[in-house]
TrEMBL record:
Residues 117-182 form the NolW-like domain. PANTHER family: DNA UTILIZATION PROTEIN HOFQ, PROTEIN TRANSPORT PROTEIN HOFQ. This is Type IV pilus secretin PilQ. Transmembrane segments: none annotated. GO terms for biological process: protein secretion. The lineage of its organism: Bacteria, Pseudomonadati, Pseudomonadota, Gammaproteobacteria, Enterobacterales. It comes from Pantoea coffeiphila.
Length: 414
């Protein structure tokens, strides 16, 4: 089908006007005439505003009618509205002016709207933290006449604004007032022999899938001594094990005198909130105050300390951010007429991901224990002079390791 309209042609392929593509050929045609041709093809009525002017030259081959209309509107910087089978066409500036008038009317209505006051109390979130977040979003949630007052006594915010802005702001605040996930951190600080550690299933170092998935590599904590077969290792080492029966196993080893439980702290904390554990002493030392020669006594910690910040992840795992310090009394040094006790420090900051209820073992701090004794043959060993043939001295060396077991567990709320 070939139709000639004014300054151009519309070529229609097929018989179905709604689905068939069209071809347009216009040369320097008034834009109103192009729109008239498109409207006539779809049997639509057309109203063009007086401000619509200009001409177009176009050649479109086999394009959908809707795409052709959008291209013409884009090139002519026009806007269109449909009311039934009538197309209303006017310049984009008119649409912008319409939006500006609507915005001005909305602002005027807000200025004339009465202000209401609402107190929002929070069950879980900190009102001061929410107030800071609200100030960042205030221009989007509240009007220019609105105000926010923080009440730390009742953990609440006092809002004053129009009813519409209040409803919007309260919904936004309620979405943030959710409880943080609670985590129980159970720790066991024990001294234990290497044989007993192996019985517990401790295998120092992360490997296999855990080495890839974990946030920590054991090699980052261990410092080799530079020999083929070192007798020891400096620094802390890590291992993961199932902690469900750990308490029972440690209690059994303690009854058999194979382990000594130094402390068993148990802490409760929240998501991204730090919990700390310390075990040790404070060492006093003198500090000069001014030029008069007077001194004051202060204390320096020499403790085995651990700070844990749990981060609850969405995959059922808990990321532990760990700060571990082992500060022990060192050697004595002379400072003038006084003797000063030094403190040997060893500190590590790291993080490791665990499953809920999985246990992290931290080791690498060794203790040497020596014991001397004597064995003798009854009666014969007590004979003067000759008794030495029937008795001999025994010296026993025991090496034990200080190990910290950490087990995080999520606290399920009903």
């Amino acid at each position: 089908m070939l139709r000639k309209i004014a300054w151009g042609l519309i070529l229609v392929s097929g018989l179905c006007r709604g689905a068939a593509p069209i071809s347009l050929v216009f040369e320097d045609a008034p834009i109103g005439q192009v729109l008239q041709a498109l409207a006539e093809y779809q049997q639509l009525n057309l109203m063009v505003a007086p401000e619509v002017d200009g001409s177009l030259t176009l050649r479109l081959q086999d394009v959908p009618w809707q795409q052709a209309l959008e291209l013409v509107m884009k090139m002519g910087r026009l806007s269109i509205e449909r009311e039934g089978n009538v197309m209303l066409v006017f310049p984009e500036e008119r649409e912008q002016e319409k939006q500006q008038r609507a915005e001005a009317e909305r602002e005027a209505a807000e200025l004339n709207s009465p202000l209401h006051t609402k107190t929002v109390m929070f069950k879980y979130a900190d009102a001061a933290a929410l107030n800071t977040s609200l100030q960042n979003e205030r221009s989007r949630l509240m009007t220019a006449r609105g105000s926010v007052t923080l009440d730390t006594r009742t953990n609440a915010l006092l809002l004053r604004d129009t009813q519409k802005a209040l409803d919007q702001t309260i919904r936004w605040l309620q979405q943030l007032d959710v409880p943080l996930e609670q985590v129980e951190i159970a720790a066991q600080i024990v001294t234990i022999s290497e044989e007993s550690l192996r019985e517990l299933g401790v295998n120092w170092g992360l490997n296999g899938e855990e080495q890839v998935a974990g946030a920590l590599r054991a090699s980052q904590l261990r410092v080799d001594l530079g020999v083929a077969r070192p007798a020891g290792m400096l620094g802390l080492t890590l291992a993961k094990l199932d902690g469900r029966l750990l308490d029972l196993e440690l209690s059994a080893l303690e009854r058999e005198h194979q382990a000594d439980i130094i402390a068993s702290p148990r802490l409760f904390t929240s998501h991204q909130q730090t919990a700390s554990i310390k075990q040790g002493t404070e060492i006093p030392y003198e500090v000069a105050t001014g030029n008069s020669g007077s001194t004051t006594m202060e204390f320096k910690e020499a403790v085995l300390g651990m700070e844990v910040t749990p981060v609850v992840q969405g995959n059922g795992r808990i990321l532990l951010k760990l700060h571990i310090s082992q500060n022990v009394p060192g050697r004595t040094m002379r400072s003038g007429e006084n003797e000063v006790l030094t403190i040997d420090k060893q500190e590590i900051d790291t993080q490791v991901a665990l499953k809920d209820g999985q246990t992290l073992a931290l080791g690498g701090i060794f203790q040497q224990q020596s014991a001397t004794g004597q064995t003798r043959v009854p009666l014969l060993g007590e004979i003067p002079l000759l008794g030495g043939l029937f008795r001999h001295s025994v010296r026993e060396q025991k090496r034990r390791e200080l190990v910290i077991f950490i087990t995080p567990r999520l606290i399920r709320s009903d």
